[in-house]
Amino acid sequence: MKVPILTYHSNNISGNDYATNNHVALAEDLRVIAGSGFRIVQLAQVVDALLGATPPASVEHAIALTFDDGSYFDWYDMAHPSCGIQRGFAGILRDFAMASGQAAHATSFVIVSPDARAELDVTCMVGRDWWRDDWWREAALEGLVAIENHSWDHNHATLSRTVQHAQDTGTFKSIDTFADADAEIRAAADWLDAHLSPWRSTLFAYPYGEWNDYLVHDYLPRHRSEHRLRAAFTGDPHPVETSSDRWRLPRYVCGHHWKTPGDLERLLRELHAGCSPLRRF
Ligand SMILES: [Zn+2]
Prior knowledge:
Strand content: 5-15%
CATH architecture: Alpha-Beta Barrel
Structural class: alpha/beta
Bound molecules: zinc ion
Order of helices and strands: EEHEHEEEHEHHEHEHHEEEH
CATH topology: TIM Barrel
Number of strands: 12
Radius of gyration: 18 Å
Shape: globular
């Protein structure tokens, strides 16, 4: 089992080419993925295989897509003030599925706190109230884009206040007490389950991709009945393998771990080659 998980940020729009716009990158990458012989599966299917609920063969030559932060750009086509009309990530998945006849799916890890999103909309986006959650339930129940947990407030440095007790913000490594983990992770899971019912959130992505020993070895494994999660994802650039730690699963991030369609093609080719029986001898 060697499954790459790719991460995109729909808010990353500063131009209209691959390097400056994750919408352009996602559309091009879908063609690279299909051309490399990979098929897109749901992230939950990768976790099922990792945890032994389904056979490893169910994710052979599979890849999963994830989106981080959960703004309108994940779901709606939006007119960006300086870069023009942007096809939403969901529309890009639909276009790909229509054109290729292949299944497309992604998991959106969302910042849950409505107050945090309202503030981040001003500090990090264009201040037009484009970070609302009115599309999450529809998305989760339709099945094209799963909605999962990216913490209560991302412990984001631009917020006037976060739930981190000492206001050590701009990192997730400082979430190292039960009270802080409970407020960032369990409270976010509760909100999602209450508002998106009957959808249940069971996956978590660390803000900034940052984890620490307390979360990985203590809070997440020991408080499962409270947070109800099955797995957590970092930003460490490796494929998910049978030996991967379920509380520290790796993901590749667009713009960091690959910067061009050629980079992605090489990365996928190496993984594919690694799976071939010929290479095992
Ligand atoms: Zn994030």
